[in-house]
Structure formats: C-alpha cells, structure tokens
User: Fold this.
Amino acid sequence: MLSGCAALDHGILNAQGPVASHERHLLLVVSGILLFVWVPVVILVPLIAWHYRHSNAKDAYRPKWAFSWPLEGFIWIPPIGIVILLAFLLWPATQKDDPYTRLTGRGAPVRVQAIALDWKWVFIYPDQGVATVNQLAIPAGRPVAVELTSGTVMQSLLLPQLAGQIYAMAGMRTRLNFAADHPGRYLGENVQFNGGKFAHQKFPIVSMTPDAYAAWIAHARQGTKALDAATWARLSRRDTTGPETYSRVPGNFFNYVVTATGGASHPHSGQHPATRKAH
Assistant:
C-alpha cells in the first residue's frame, strides 16, 4: 500500500532547483493558510449533522429564523480575508516564478532549444552545435534558458523537480528558465495527451558537474551523426526512440521548425535547412 509513496521522490516535494524549491515553499504556505477553511468545515459538518439528527427531539426546530449579523460576518469575513492574503502572497510569487524570467547570480545561462515531436523530445544546444533526442544534459549550478516549440500538435513540458509546466505549440516559441542545484538524474515528460504512445514520452534530465558537462559536450562533438534532412524525416514519424546524440546541427534549425510549422499546412513541410546550398 505504501509503494506509491515513491512517486513523491520525483515531484515538487523533492525539489532540486531554485524554481521548484520556491514553488514547493509557496505550496506549503498556501496549504497552511487554506487549513483555516478546511478545518472548520471538516469539524462543523459532522457536528451539525449530529445536532440535527432525527432522534434529537430536545432542541427547537426554527425553519424561519431571523437574519443574524454575527453569522453573516462569520460566513463572509474570514473567506474575504483569506482571498486578500493569498492575493498579496501570490502576486509577487507570480512575478518571481515567471518562466520567462532569467535566473540571476548563477553565471551565464546554458541555451537549449526544445522541439516536441510524437513521441519524443529533441534538444538543440545552439552554442555548442550539438543536439540530443530524449536526453537533456545540463551543468549543475548554472541556469538553463530553454526555448520551446512543437513540430506537431501542442504538447507540455514538465520538469517536476526543477521547474513547472510550460506548453510547446507549433509555430510559436515559449521559454522556460530553471537550474539544478546538484548533480543527479531527474524526470522530464510531456503531460499534454498527444496520441497512443503519450505515456512513453519521458526523458531523463542529467545534471552534471561543470567538468563532466564539458567532457560530455566534447564527446558529443566527436560523434558522426548529423541532424540532417533524412534524420529529421525519421524523427518526425509518429514513433518512440531511444536517446540519441548528434554532433552537427544546421544553423537556425530551431527557427526553421517554428517557421515551417507556423506557416505551412503540413507541420513538416518546407525546405529543411540542411538541404539548402548555404549548408
């Protein structure tokens, strides 16, 4: 019966980054405040049901009772106060946890461009010229700035231990900023239903030490696979695939996907940048 508790290790309650840690803190604070609503209801409902039970003939029954200011105040004043308190609490938190806000004080961000496909994720490192499929490698302690789009239907990226949830839509780009405090292996997944193998669209987020990340980039650059037109056509097919690494990525590839999916009738129509003479 307790085996399901292991799921807590992969969620926000086991936060491993500054964004998720602040969201967890906010969740606990808001939950504590809402106890002032939940506890009276849980206590008073059974007490009222017991008091007005059919067998209680000693207390008077007054179906036409008069207006009561104290009762009205008890009904309205506490909820209004809680709503005002939550508004003052959540407004600055909304600004702080805006996914478009860059994380400061942690060095230069690592740029990643994420493309959602069926049923896989493609991650491009434009500054390093490499790409991966179904694996996101990041350096621990440094901020990560992600641009997202979709090469097919709308999908949603969730990094439960590191950040929140953000949508990826064809022809559009969204952003997500996060960081991992420690080296480790964390869960990433699509949480927007997109077909038969939706449940398999998960990938590991591998957080490494700076030296290990630099070595990983160097090793990725030594590979022989390229994200060319033939590879993109294969990845665009509706199927799952294992982790892959590509040592060469055409320039402006992410912009090509955004433009092609936004202005064409078919999500993968248009000329692939790898087939142009400039490349």
Q: What stands out?
A: Residues 30 and 148 are 30 Å apart (CA to CA). Residues 264-270, 275-279 have pLDDT under 50 and may be disordered. DSSP finds five helices and eleven strands in the chain.
